[in-house]
Amino acid sequence: MEPFKNVFHRQGIVLMAEALFRSDSTFDRKGFTERATREIESLELKQRSHQIYIALCEFLPSDFLVACKVIKQALHPCVDGAPMRAETDEQGIQGWLIMPLAEFVGLDGAEHLPEAMALMRELTMRFTAEFGIRHLLKVDPTTCLSLIETWISDENEHVRRLASEGTRPRLPWGLRLQAFVKEPQLTLPLLEKLRDDPSEYVRRSVANHLNDIAKDHPQLILNLAHDWHMDAPEIRQKMLRHALRNLLKEGRQQALSLYDMSSPQVRNVFMELPQTIIAVGESLTIRFQVESASAREQRLRFDIVIHYRKGNGTLSPKVFRWKDINLPAHQVHVAEKKISFRPITTRRYYGGLHKVEIKINGAKHAELDFDLSA
């Protein structure tokens, strides 16, 4: 599998330089390419993007407004968002190479906010400007939010998404917006207007934004979800379910109650691990059985918690959503689940004792130990 960092590669940068040269005949495409690709094979993804940004600073016109015109004219004509999976070509810049352009506009455009934000709108239609726009929001959130407000009714779904994604308080990979972490009310009016957007791409961003807020202000989001859930269309209910995913995993009763999940009435809970010793690369098989102790049907949510061993020997829990079921009165539910321990880039496995537990509607009902051979 090709490393993800290779979305920034020499041939793409050459095409980027050609597009900028077509836009501005004084642009030094050779000098730009040499600077942007310097020792690129040794750099990681964000380092590559930043190096391209440095080259843009060196070779674009020093007048920011002139540089904006050069960038805009060099963009790919396609604005339907498909370039999220495409690359810069002979028609213009799109895809991942938009990322360093957005960084340039964000870091250098604070003194020309209207023009910088207008270019952010153009950039996001060719990939996303969610990372670069945060530099502008940090400098002047009030002015930026007033400009973003006009994007709510934009015909392009990627522009509407940027109104939510670009203002997320804790965007992964992105600059943390401490003003929005402290005052989530600043962005809630945007989210309320986008909550029923016809695009699932936009609604999913709204859900992720709400989930960000919930990390710092859980009660605010629980109350908001209660209000928004009342008489909500199906698309909003789905959006809210995604927004509340971590609060549901935490077993917050106010979140669970929105989905008719009360304290479970169960008995004869049984969990079995056919193998209590597994190796990295194998899967842990979990067999589980539970009997209803209620005279009524119950809505039950099953979560699996793996307590991974860390390098210092302590255990760190990770919650995985398993499934939701309707358990009829006095009936028995039997299930089996496999948890993979294949190597992944986002987790390092350490050998030794681990734990697995089953939660039902947020409450622990079974726990067993197993050994992992790393």
Q: Care to describe what's here?
A:
The protein has 374 residues and is α+β, with helices and mostly antiparallel strands. It has 16 helices and 8 strands. It has helices spanning 10-23, 29-36, 45-59, 64-74, 98-108, 113-124, 133-139, 141-148, 157-165, 178-182, 188-194, 200-216, 218-229, 234-243, 245-249, 253-257; strands at 266-272, 277-279, 283-292, 298-309, 315-327, 332-340, 352-360, 363-373. The mean pLDDT is 96.
Question: Topology, please?
Answer:
Elements: H1 10-23, H2 29-36, H3 45-59, H4 64-74, H5 98-108, H6 113-124, H7 133-139, H8 141-148, H9 157-165, H10 178-182, H11 188-194, H12 200-216, H13 218-229, H14 234-243, H15 245-249, H16 253-257, E1 266-272, E2 277-279, E3 283-292, E4 298-309, E5 315-327, E6 332-340, E7 352-360, E8 363-373
Parallel strand pairs: 2-8
Antiparallel strand pairs: 1-3, 3-6, 4-5, 4-7, 7-8
Helix pairs in contact: 1-2, 1-4, 2-3, 3-5, 5-6, 5-7, 7-8, 9-12, 12-13, 12-14
Keywords:
three-stranded antiparallel β-sheet, five-stranded mixed β-sheet, alpha+beta, Serine Threonine Protein Phosphatase 5, Tetratricopeptide repeat, 16 helices, 42% helix, 2 domains, Immunoglobulin-like
